[in-house]
Amino acid sequence: MSIETPPTAKKVPSERVHHGDTVVDDYAWLMAKDDPETIAHLEAENAYTQHTTAHLKPLQETIFQEIKGRTLETDLSVPTRKGDWWYYSRTEEGKQYGIQCRVPADGETPPDLKADESLPGEQILLDGNELAGDSDFFAIGTSAVSPDGTLLAYSVNFTGDERFTLKVKNLVTGETLPDEIPGIFYGGAWAADGSTFFYTTVDEAWRPDKVHRHVIGTPAADDVLVYEETDERFWIGIGLTRSERYLVLSAGSKITSEVRILEADDPTGEFRVVRPRKTGVEYGIDHAGDRFLILHNRNAENFEVATAPIEDPGTWTPLVEHREDTRLLDVEAFASHIVVHFRRDGLTGIRVLPTEGGTDRDALLAAAYEIPFPEPIYDVAPSGNPEFVTGRLRLGYASMITPPSVYDFDLRSRELILLKRRPVLGGYDPDDYEQFREWATASDGTRVPISIAVKKGTERPAPTVLYGYGSYEISIDPSFSVARLSLLDRGFVFAIAHVRGGGEMGRRWYEDGKFQHKKNTFTDFVACAEHLKATGWSSSVVARGGSAGGLLMGAVANLAPELFAGVVAEVPFVDPLTSILDPSLPLTVIEWDEWGDPLHNPDVYHYMKSYSPYENVSGQVYPPILAITSLNDTRVLYHEPAKWVARLREVAKGGPFLLKTEMGAGHGGRSGRYDSWREEAFTLSWILDTSKVTQ
């Protein structure tokens, strides 16, 4: 096959019947990952994509150098106090991965670190570059220091399939201990004794379903199975409260939670249930001295905060009550205050409830206050607060024009102290850019927010990238991107469509974009694109989204292809019906609480079939489409975009339709920062070329 012509996937009819409906899938054979023909087809697609985009190599290199040139390559994070140490990470010029470090602590004020110098007493915990070696992919799944600061439990992965190997490092001697446990999931938690570590493993469907207890220095074969979740809809996780008093074992589906707790100084004891699971009730827990704090949605769609006695954690008394205009996201307990992270009017915020004046409800609410922020569009969240006893609250802050910033909020003076703003080299000045909030009107009259960033002086209408996601109540908040500057400086508008199915406007916003309301996600995005054109913002629109946002991309390409100059779909969930019908595939049963169960419910089946991108490719004219995927992705399997592109080539007009598969990566793409910059430069150069912007 010539690389100058698009690969033609062979057609091998495969028939399935569900609810009286017969479907013939000619490209189901691509699901055979180990079949040499599958690999050959993916490699042929890569060769064709490389050939088709060869003229963009100089532009790709230019954009890569722009990203690199704006990034302070030798840098470090703001240190975080935990016990007797300040913890932070370094990056060094020319190295792909970060380096985790610590120095002895003294006081609450972070030490003055210099990126190119080591402080006296600096200790390297993990050097990702040494651990990665020559591997094409590398990721750390957990990194947890024992309560006494002497041991580090960490896990590594070299393929992108998100199965990690747990190791333990003695931080006093620097040696790696013999303990080694393969096949574990993310996360883990230490018991108070500093010699017992709890971790999770997954089942064949990639669902974390078991919690194990490991005693340092003993064989992994002797590890004790602490808990097994048999309901296939539920994931589990294990953590430690900030107070380090309780281990927390959480089980949750998309719509239901159940939490178990155990005193951290009794690692061989029995976990006790906080409140038995009830379908539709979600809750989480934190320890606050003589009581627990419970964030829950029982009779509270946007959640409320309750308190519960230590001896009876299932009895909940309201503290911060439900509000229809405010979605409570998290509650965090400290010795002298409670912090509530919330969302209102599409923006995040922080509310502080001081406890020094008393812990009864009236006293707490009377003393409560919200932290103000100056920009009209921003994103803020508590970040890096491991100490229970502290006079400061660490916050992460960013906007579409303000680089990621780290603040300490002084709880006594109520002063925001800027500790660090990520440097952007090359003369970046936020005052050269603007951000706006627009509102589109959906077909049912719903107002949909759009966040917009543009360089001042950009002539409008301008070429536009419109980004969207819209699933799992995940919010795409206004954030900063160094790579995005390569678009804005070339006269682009960048916009985020905050469509239903996400969480930007509260729990109802999410509910109105899932199950039998899923099409609202797609029509909202179309309405946003139409609004940007009608109001003079956009001369052309390239749509971009990934994962479930890739489903959005495939759906709007079918729904309104004439609106878009191009579509970028990254690790796209474009064959959802096939995947959600197969309970043997990773995550399928869990996903029934998000999309519905088409295997057993004919109404769900026919509704999903009516919007599935793969099922609904037609003979209309489509814009150019770039699909990017990874062979080892365990969340959205590579064959979905491979089949989609094959069907587009067979049925549709227009294009071209390109498929690029990372043959050694997972859901997040390439792991090294330089590799990821090159991948982004590739995508941005395609967007520029597709938008007829060539400089």
UniProtKB/TrEMBL annotation:
Keyword list, A-Z: Hydrolase, Protease, Serine protease
InterPro entries registered for this protein in UniProt: AB_hydrolase_fold, Pept_S9A_N, Peptidase_S9_cat, Peptidase_S9A, Serine_Peptidase_S9A
Protein name (database record): Oligopeptidase B
Domain of life: Bacteria
Gene: ptrB
Domain Peptidase S9 prolyl oligopeptidase catalytic, first and last residues per copy: 478-691
SUPFAM superfamilies: alpha/beta-Hydrolases, Peptidase/esterase 'gauge' domain
PANTHER family reported for this sequence: PROLYL ENDOPEPTIDASE-LIKE, PROTEASE FAMILY S9A OLIGOPEPTIDASE
GO biological process, one term: proteolysis
Family: Belongs to the peptidase S9A family.
GO molecular function, one term: serine-type endopeptidase activity
